[in-house]
Structure prediction request, 494 residues.
Amino acid sequence: MKVRFITPYYGVKGQPLLTLPCLAAEFEPYCDVELCDQNVEEIDYSDADLVGISLLVYNAPLGYEIARRFRERGIPVVMGGSWPTVSPDLVAPYCDSVVVGEVEGLGERIISDLRQGQLRARYQNPCPPSLDQLRLPRVDLLKSERYFQLTGYPMELTRGCPNRCSFCVSKDIQPTFRKKPYWMIIRDLEARDSPILSLYDLNIGANKRYFKDVARIFAEFPIAAWQCETCIGYLDDIELLKLLERSRLNQVYVGIESITEAGLASVNKSFNPRHRYGEIIRKCHDHGIHIAAGFIVGLDGEDKSVFERSLEFFEEVKVEYTTPMYVTYLPGTPMHTKLKREGRIVTDNLEDYDGTHPIVRPSGMTLDELQEGVEWFVKEFYGLRSTLVRGLQRPNRRPKDLMGYYAFNRWFARMYKDVFTPNSDGVRPVDDREAFAAITQRRVDKRFHGFGVAESLVNVWNKVDRRLRPLQRLYQQVALPGTSMTKRHRVPAR
Ligand code: B12
Ligand code: SF4
Prediction:
């Protein structure tokens, strides 16, 4: 029995999701599995017994079209991912079966129902699966050479987040906070094929003791650099920062979202320590950690002065990167329904729900002012002046960090020029969606060309690292002290 899992194109060619590797791990004991990421390869439309399509939200229309082509030939289609999880009823007409939430624990039942010709309309775990028995995600099945090597090997150590920010789908996709046992972290680390790691956890710092132990474990592995995502408040701890520095964490993504009290309150994120942002960022810098700051625009209670004030703030605290994003609520969520009723939702096209198109009419400025504000902010923040101001004054002690800082600032500048400024005819996303999309797409396709040399170097580095793996293992067994985390938490023999 052959099952083909597909991720439809979503415009980010550089970084693989962990979705396909996790699906392969869950299903491979029960059937033959094929993976297809349309971001880096053509879709194989040949026959299969079942096709599984994973949807975020902005790639849903494309996913529906792919499903149609399989279903008209009688091939059943199951859909899963964050969009089907948030709004299963809106997805159901386009497929034979919807998987709501995490798939671990459902694979065997789905395949056995399929064999009996009794695929059910919906599958859902009664409660979120424990991570204690999670199989190793089959990252090795991805065509890794086609991805952007600088982003590193994808790993997840925890799922869920205890917070409930109103715009975030974490409560739907991973409803409770769970963590992998330490031996499993070691297993996953040993399987990696790159010295750079990227953690996909929603909020790894939510359990501080665990976060510290992860840093202790990472410190014992020959990791060149790693990055993760957490709340800025959790980083207000010197012992943690010391451990993170020792483990070679080089970048953390923190959801600053807004510098205003009203903005934070409007998305249920008042727990962010607004008055300590600067101090915490300074401490992170002192420990060699770069800050990528989430920044949401168009929040209630904010007027057009927010762009200038935010730029001033980001330059003062010398944040390395920001990822501006229009506030986005997914259709089917209570916030979306409320705003729709109030006439404030400006587009129903799912392709627009990617953070780079305005979705909600702002309360404190016009839609034009909002778009002009973001365009101005991005031009200033990623312009040469601000890049120098933020770069030259921060404690960029290591030359490689300094180089990384400038390289990524230039890259972000190019990327945001593609998506947040009007196209060459002055057309903005909501004015003429199709014209804008066509021009943006051509630019997006070129997006990853700017890193040719750096990427080739990382490729060579990855190959050398792979060759040295047996030596690294020997080093871990012989040279590390007997009290090390690695020795205490052995991977169980199979
Ligand atoms: C890596 C990552 C990225 C990367 C990679 C590419 C990408 N476009 O997503 C980068 C940094 C580029 C990125 C960017 C953005 N991202 Co992002 N990202 C993630 C992250 C951290 C990991 C994704 C992942 O691999 N998860 C692990 C896998 C295993 O989980 P999963 O996909 O949910 O799959 C499980 C189930 O859903 C189910 N399942 C999934 N598919 C299927 C299919 C079938 C057939 C079945 C049976 C089951 C099934 O089984 C899986 C295992 O249990 C997630 C957060 C998260 N932890 O999920 C956010 C997340 C996906 N991103 C999100 C957002 C909002 C964005 C941005 C819009 C933010 C922004 N403006 O900057 C941009 C989008 C840019 C773009 N145009 O794509 C949201 C998605 C909301 C949505 N539904 O659209 C998430 C969920 C974060 C959040 N807290 O809300 N992101
Ligand atoms: S803290 Fe981050 S992951 Fe958690 S709910 Fe808020 S935005 Fe989502």
